Amino acid sequence: MRILVTGGAGYIGATAVAILLSKGFEVSVLDDCSTGHKDSIPENVRFIRGSILDSTAIEDALTGCNAVMHFAGKSLVSESVEKPDLYRNVNIEGTRLLLEQMQYMGLKKIVFSSSASTYGDPAISPTPETQIGIPTNPYGESKLAVDEMLARESSVNGISAISLRYFNVAGAININGQWLAERHNPETHLIPMVLRSKPDEPVKIFGTDWPTPDGTCIRDYVHVIDLVDAHVSALNSLDAPSHTIINVGGGIGYSVREVITASSRALGYDIPTVDASRRQGDPAILVADISRAKSLLNWEPVRNLEDMVRDTAHSIHPVR
Ligand SMILES: NC(=O)c1ccc[n+]([C@@H]2O[C@H](COP(=O)([O-])OP(=O)(O)OC[C@H]3O[C@@H](n4cnc5c(N)ncnc54)[C@H](O)[C@@H]3O)[C@@H](O)[C@H]2O)c1
């Protein structure tokens, strides 16, 4: 079975490529390398360097494939506020073109990278998939629009689709002694930022007066290997025409200070921090209800915060 991994040069996509290959799948990758890295793609993968906005490149990439894991997209919240058209174009129009080409070529199965940002500032925590999404930025709006597009496509054109709504993804995978990890620029994810914090560039804590036990925001983290395992379960469950939204997270909330404490423990010194004011649009608490993933995918995470911090630390500080 050959899987097209869009965005397979990126952090999560490249991890998916590695795990799919280890499970005996054949893999094709479509990526424009705008935020991804070609050197993350192994030689035995069919790589098409191109955009999901280019129908010819999509057609080429889909040739010989049986299903799609769709990771490609723009995913910086602050950039989405500055450039909402870029997010509408790449994330929504790009997915529309991908689905159009899948329909044309008779491909029916897709697993999509949705996001907890579709929920905005949810009223219920842990948040179930039934929570009405009210995104607070164009990135979240674009992901919600694609979830809705997939729902329509399943009823109109009979595709079988799952939107996996990730919370915060962290950790890294070691392949033959080499770490495959986040290489975002700029890096906006808390764990790598905390692990790179230096006395002259301390990591910022955005808000210390949130209505949480230690005053800092609470988030849910999932290890990238557990996340990809959820994708494989989702892929294997695709069958009848349907669209299902499934949260993928740890199901546990950790405050920013708890992440910093775990990271200080992993590195063996106190990580420098500086208090900053709240960022607009940040919810105080965002934690996944993962009961649907447990029941429909028979999946639950097996790695904890300590594993995520340790693996990310090893990828950043390989001598440790
Ligand atoms: N990392 C997280 O914590 C997180 C959380 C929720 C959802 N997601 C979603 O998961 C997916 C992967 O995230 P990531 O952290 O690996 O990001 P990433 O930036 O590392 O990977 C995205 C990949 O998509 C490629 N890409 C971007 N625009 C493209 C285009 N027009 N055509 C072809 N390829 C294009 C990039 O070059 C990159 O390789 C994204 O859709 C993101 O929104 C990530």
UniProtKB/TrEMBL annotation:
Record organism:
freshwater metagenome
Family of the protein in this entry: Belongs to the NAD(P)-dependent epimerase/dehydratase family.
All copies of the NAD-dependent epimerase/dehydratase domain together span 3-249
From the Swiss-Prot or TrEMBL record, what is one GO molecular function term?
UDP-glucose 4-epimerase activity
Keyword list, A-Z: Carbohydrate metabolism, Isomerase, NAD
Does the keyword Transport feature in the UniProt annotation? no
Question: Which cofactor names does the annotation list?
Answer: NAD(+)
Instruction: Write the protein's name.
Output: Unannotated protein
The family database entries (NCBIfam families) matched by this protein are listed as:
galE
GO biological process terms, semicolon-separated: galactose metabolic process
